[in-house]
Amino acid sequence: MARISTIKRNEADAQLAIVFDAVKAKIGVVPNLFATFANSPAVLNGYLAFSDALTHGRLSAAQRETLALAIGQANSCQYCLSAHTLLGKGAGLDAAAIKDARQGNAADPITNALAKLAVKIVTQRGVLSDADINEAKDAGVDDGLIIEVIASVALNTLTNYTNHIAATEIDFPVVQL
Question: How many whole angstroms from its chain centre is CA 22?
Answer without folding.
Answer: 20
